[in-house]
UniProtKB/TrEMBL annotation, chains A, B:
Belongs to the tRNA pseudouridine synthase TruA family. It comes from Brevibacillus fluminis. Homodimer. GO terms for molecular function: RNA binding; tRNA pseudouridine(38-40) synthase activity. The gene is truA. This is tRNA pseudouridine synthase A. InterPro entries: PsdUridine_synth_cat_dom_sf (IPR020103), PsdUridine_synth_TruA (IPR001406), PsdUridine_synth_TruA_a/b_dom (IPR020097), PsdUridine_synth_TruA_C (IPR020095), TruA/RsuA/RluB/E/F_N (IPR020094). NCBIfam families: hisT_truA. GO terms for biological process: tRNA pseudouridine synthesis. Pfam families: PseudoU_synth_1. It is an enzyme of class 5 (isomerase).
Length: 245, 245
């Protein structure tokens, strides 16, 4: 028996999120079905965390255990061969038997992509949310500074969550323009339910001039979801990378 | 009554091609349904040419006639509002009543995209065909030179075609690498059925080392579809632009 660690990219558009759910097509379910065909074993994979329906990944991580004799260097090819084009295994490596894709996470990075062109860029239509009115990136960057550090992120968390401890640390929150695209890059030690999408949605309202950047201090202190802005659309969000020790 | 000329981009993945077909979801049918909702008129649009199922466009052109009083500058927004994200109207302008999107074409440019990375780039998976073995772009470029100019392209045309005159002029055929992507850029006065995909498929065989670049002279002279290579996958092909006088 050995444990393998995999990095996977996926286009989340046509999946009901990462995590297995009854009667739904999910990324995890699709990967587990491929593993079953390859190994004839019933394998449950453990992801670094779930992603919502429509959210993408460039570097989601999962691990699984297998008795299979497939050589390590063949795994990536064999797996990709059994997966649809919308799921791509980027790497497969041996992991320590104690390694856990969820419990051992140290940092995660998400990126939110806004297409700010006057008309949407076709090849980004599944991976970016389109705002045709020009957004003020400098104001967004100014607002973003208030969130860096250790804070109670209750205001930036779906009211539907059951997690008690809402203190998280954001190490980096950058807003940058790259041609017509605006990227919100957010790295932290963990994220609450819908946290990055609510941060993105509230930053967009600052970019539109509907909110003052300094409003972010008040929103954070209020610990009230109602004070923050809308939850930005799932399709603009990509789990970019997961970092371990 | 006035005639409008539109430039449209679309992600062809989920459409049965551009042209209306009974019982199928097509780009043309989707645009005509949107026009009907907007104007309450029954409008038939005329495209610059059809594209096959799965083929994309960055700059397809069509025209239509309408009695609608919608101001010209509102049209793009109104149309995009009624269209799915996979179809984007880039511009709408007044056209001369004699303008015809198909008959007045002077040049067309197609681009074929190959993802030549060791693993596919996720955000390109719908718009590029993936070859993980490195292709020799210089050899492909050398082969491409044989096709520039006026030639009988019978060898690079689907045997299923009914067109009699297979002489076309290619003004430009470039093969260029951009990071892991290889672009085949092909501009000509007209294209036969599957012509760009057969050219791309045959160039790929040169890039793989399975064919000599100079083989292209023989293939062209043979006027026999069997002498050329495979038809490359539809998803890598994009109708890039259509030029008028």
């Amino acid at each position: 028996m050995k444990r393998l660690k995999c990095v996977v990219a996926y286009d989340g558009t046509d999946y009901s999120g990462f995590q297995v759910q009854p009667e739904q097509v999910t990324v995890q379910g699709t990967i587990e079905a491929a593993l079953q065909r390859i190994t004839s074993e019933t394998i449950q994979i453990a992801g670094s965390g779930r992603t919502d329906a429509g959210v993408h990944a460039q570097g989601q991580v999962f691990h699984f255990d297998t008795h299979s004799a497939i050589p390590l260097e063949k795994w990536r090819f064999v797996l990709n061969n059994q997966l649809p084009d919308s799921i791509v295994i980027l790497s497969v490596e041996d992991a320590h038997p104690d390694f856990h894709a969820r419990f051992d996470v140290v940092r995660k990075q998400y990126r939110y992509c806004i297409d700010n062109g006057s008309v949407p860029e076709l090849f980004r239509h599944r991976y970016a949310d389109h705002y045709r009115h020009p957004l003020d990136v400098e104001c967004m960057q100014e607002a973003a500074r208030y969130l860096v550090g250790e804070h109670d992120f209750t205001s930036f968390c779906s009211a539907k969550t059951f997690v008690e401890d809402k203190v998280r640390t954001i190490y980096e929150l950058k807003v940058m323009r790259e041609g017509d695209l605006i990227w919100i890059i957010c790295e932290g030690n963990g994220f609450l339910y819908n946290m990055v999408r609510i941060i993105a949605g509230t930053l967009i309202e600052v970019g539109e001039g509907k909110r003052d950047p300094h409003d972010f201090a008040r929103i954070l202190a209020a610990r009230d979801r109602e004070q923050a802005g809308k939850t930005a659309a799932a399709k603009g969000l990509t789990m970019w990378k997961v970092l371990y020790e």
